[in-house]
């Protein structure tokens, strides 16, 4: 562990945390479990060789990086990371060395995933590790389009604007991809760009349409079209365990919301679903979570991140309440403690 972490109480325990739980039933699916390398490899299968997505990244210093303007002119290396991710912090010195080696030939950006994150924590990591490369915080849209499944997730884009490599480790494959990118030819014409994804759209009072989840037992449920109120709990199966030391308030909030939701769901007059994001999560891990936590609320994996995006969920835990007409009534965040009253108000509509 780096001595520099002694100045970072909130992060000091990250490097001693256990790795995230692994699925014992890894399958060749978009939500496959396994170690970080296998998840990143699965994420990259539909990306490598394809045009990279355009995006404008905002750095923590207030500047902007237009990725679309770089494609065809300069290679790009994006390292997705999180302040609560121990492996990400372990790799930071290596990432700084890569920037010093390739920074004049490749645009290198440390892209914080922006999931259960704060600007202050991101800046603290940047300062503690003296990161020389630009540091940006994703609003979730770029991560969704690059199939973010793990942290860290390395994405190398060639000078022709096509994705060369998606990986998890700082290994020979990453170095080889950077070497290929650095020595690649500039595109003769502007490259095509991956189509833009849909923007988040739901605000309080809006009608929820076109969203659905599939529970881990295979049941597909439409959101906002049930003719009954719905409560959607947004979570991750590792929140209570992995974040216990590094983000104790978040871990405690996840436990509190789970316990309160289970109790309140017993009334039976509201349809409940607990929805996990795709980062470090699989259907197998959700099944294990249901078994160990003895949860009765149906669980679903948002494998594309579209449901999280539709409601603008960037912090867990969160609870979204929909009325019987399919209108968004309220979004409760990690610090909101009036879920029971909010449900009374929902029933009274």
Automatic annotation (TrEMBL):
Residues 1-26 form the signal peptide. Residues 46-183, 188-349 form the Thioredoxin domain. It is found in: Cell envelope. SUPFAM superfamilies: Thioredoxin-like (SSF52833). Keywords: Cytochrome c-type biogenesis, Disulfide bond, Redox-active center, Signal. It comes from the Bacteria. This is Redoxin family protein.
């Amino acid at each position: 562990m780096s001595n520099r972490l002694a100045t970072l109480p909130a992060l000091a325990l990250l490097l001693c945390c256990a790795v995230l739980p692994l699925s014992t039933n890894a399958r060749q699916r978009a939500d496959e479990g396994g170690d970080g390398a296998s998840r990143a490899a699965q994420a990259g299968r539909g990306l490598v060789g394809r045009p990279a997505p355009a995006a404008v990244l905002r750095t923590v210093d207030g500047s902007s990086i237009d990725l679309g303007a770089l494609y065809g002119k300069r290679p790009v290396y994006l390292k997705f990371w999180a302040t609560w991710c121990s492996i990400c912090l372990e790799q930071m010195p290596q990432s700084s060395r890569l920037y010093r080696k390739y920074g004049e030939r490749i645009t290198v950006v440390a892209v914080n995933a922006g999931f259960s994150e704060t600007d202050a924590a991101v800046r603290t990591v940047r300062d503690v590790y003296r990161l020389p490369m630009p540091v940006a915080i994703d609003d979730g849209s770029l991560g969704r389009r690059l199939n973010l499944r793990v942290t860290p997730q390395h994405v190398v884009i060639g000078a022709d604007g096509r994705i060369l490599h998606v990986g998890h480790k700082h290994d020979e494959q990453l170095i080889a991809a950077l070497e290929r990118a650095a020595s690649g030819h500039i595109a003769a014409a502007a490259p095509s760009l991956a189509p833009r994804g849909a923007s988040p759209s739901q605000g309080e009072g809006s009608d929820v349409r076109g969203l659905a989840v599939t529970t881990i037992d295979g049941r597909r449920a439409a959101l906002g079209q049930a003719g009954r109120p719905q409560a959607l709990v947004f979570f991750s199966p590792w929140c209570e365990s992995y974040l216990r030391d590094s983000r104790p308030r978040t871990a405690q909030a996840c436990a509190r919301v789970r316990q309160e939701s289970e109790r309140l769901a017993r009334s039976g007059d509201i349809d409940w679903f607990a929805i996990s994001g795709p980062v470090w999560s699989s259907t197998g891990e959700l099944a294990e979570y249901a078994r160990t936590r003895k949860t009765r609320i149906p669980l679903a994996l948002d494998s594309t991140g579209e449901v999280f995006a539709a409601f603008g969920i960037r912090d867990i835990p969160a609870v979204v309440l929909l009325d019987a007409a399919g209108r968004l009534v309220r979004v409760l965040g990690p610090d909101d403690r009036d879920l029971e009253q909010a449900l009374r108000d929902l029933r009274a509509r």
